[in-house]
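=== Given protein ===
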Amino acid sequence: MKLSERIDALVQLGNYLEAGSEVLDAIIQQSYITNKWFVVENVRLSLHAIRTEFLNREKLIAWADAYRINPNGNQKTIGLILAGNIPLVGFHDVLAVFVAGHKAKIKLSEKDKFLLPHLLAKLEEIDERTKAYFELTPKLADFEAVIATGSNNTARYFETYFGKYPNIIRKNRNGVAVLTGEESEAELKALGQDIFQYFGLGCRNVSKLYIPANYNFDPLLEALHEYREIVLHNKYKNNFDYNYTLLIMNSIKHYSNGCILITEDNSLQSRIAQLHFELFADADDLRSKLAAHEDDIQCIVSRPIEGLDTFPFGKAQQPTLMDYADGVDTMTFLTGLN
């Protein structure tokens, strides 16, 4: 398939997601039955983001034009190990391999094993030639390069198994937010999306705040209380209650509004229903603290900060085609294989 034909097929897939179908609705329900974190609202949120940011013709063309995609390039087989923390979190990797003209050999996460197969089947209905570009497999073998996403623990195994191949191996990362106390109510409410979307399970979700000394938590807690219905979700509520109990039993100072627990902790990674914070003295101290965790931060949510790439409040879970996980340009990696 020519690049233009591959893009045409992807755009039609986007049109399908916009129109929806009873089959798609059934797949969404099946995903929820298998994984209770995949509530219908969150799956539809992911599908909407994919349709608007990843399957838009103009955006796809501009993305592809930024790279040297050889129309006569030697097609490679790329092994993909996908994560399953949020719905279709690995779609960008699958998309990149296809646009670059390679074949994807895909190992799905057990947590998310229905959505992508359905989209690939629909893509094959749109253009049967796309079938040659994708293969779902329970175990990776016979590949020439690999992109693997997992935890810090699994990354060590990935490096052992796949180190001899060209590879991108991703580890745990988290989103952070920088607050000064001057944020508007609207900005703080938007920050709630960065914290609560997908129950905070995504690597782009904000798990930690950097704040100045004497920060007043009251406006933040009030704004985040707008998301209080999240505790109606049984699994989230169980995590909230468990973590709340631990904080009380261990006499750990914390702030709470009934749907989030905020504690001072230098760690970037926080438990479900919990948010860490760390104080910074001034701009230089802030930059130093962020730099120390550069390899562990997926994105920074904040008002613009000179010299740093930041996302506006509420946009952490709305990456564009050019927002690569771990800051590693997947398309440069893939096009370089030719």
The first helix runs from residue 3 to 19. The CA atoms of residues 51 and 169 lie 26 Å apart. Residues 3-171 form a domain with the Aldehyde Dehydrogenase; Chain A, domain 1 fold (CATH 3.40.605.10). The chain has a mean pLDDT of 95.
